[in-house]
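Good morning C.,

I know you're traveling, so I'll keep this short. The sequence:
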Amino acid sequence: MSSSFSSVSKPASSTPVSPQAQHLESLTDVIHFLHARGWTPATSSNFSCRLPEGQTGFSISVSGLDKGTFSAEDFLEVDFAGQVICPEQAHLRPSAETLLHALVYQQFPAAQVVLHTHSVNGTVLSKLYEASQGLLLKDFEVLKGLEGIRTHQTELWLPIFGNHQDMTVLAAQIEPVLREQKPVYGFLLAGHGLYTWGDTLAQAKRHVEVFEFLFECVLKLRSHGYSDYS
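The tokens, ready to paste straight into the viewer:
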């Protein structure tokens, strides 16, 4: 399955640039956008894109880097077990949550990009609704920004999982929900952040923006005593 990314104009160069390198440049631009919105504070958050057709695995952000200065060179290639593929990158450390990215790619073969952010609104809501194991979003026009949704008269369940430092344990908790709940566009980790994805980079970015808009709406409705979000 071929990747599809929005193109970003770059200065002309005499050195040929591979499609994957172009993809990573475009993904880096999105990371900078998300950082500017305050959704990737400190060195938090992680991002990935599937490797080109014919290759198994994905490129994921290196752990512990400021996303405001993140570059296309700050990715490394891993397989679906989270192991670094290229020997020359063996000294680098992939994101601690690499296995969660792998889980998404394995459950959703069309997914090309996974974006994981840490906004204040998403984190607060993840704690408010942790006991409910999810948040029901309905009757918002902006829901139509999620791929495949055609009407605001939609009820969308966004799962929330308790956070865990052992990614193997956490992936085992998330996997059956991703497999059984259709459609699913993302999930929250309690006290942690949002995971969402897309069949293209533009789609994945749009999904982050939709969820963040909805998170802010729900919190404001709660502050006004709106019964559905009490």
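Safe travels,
E.
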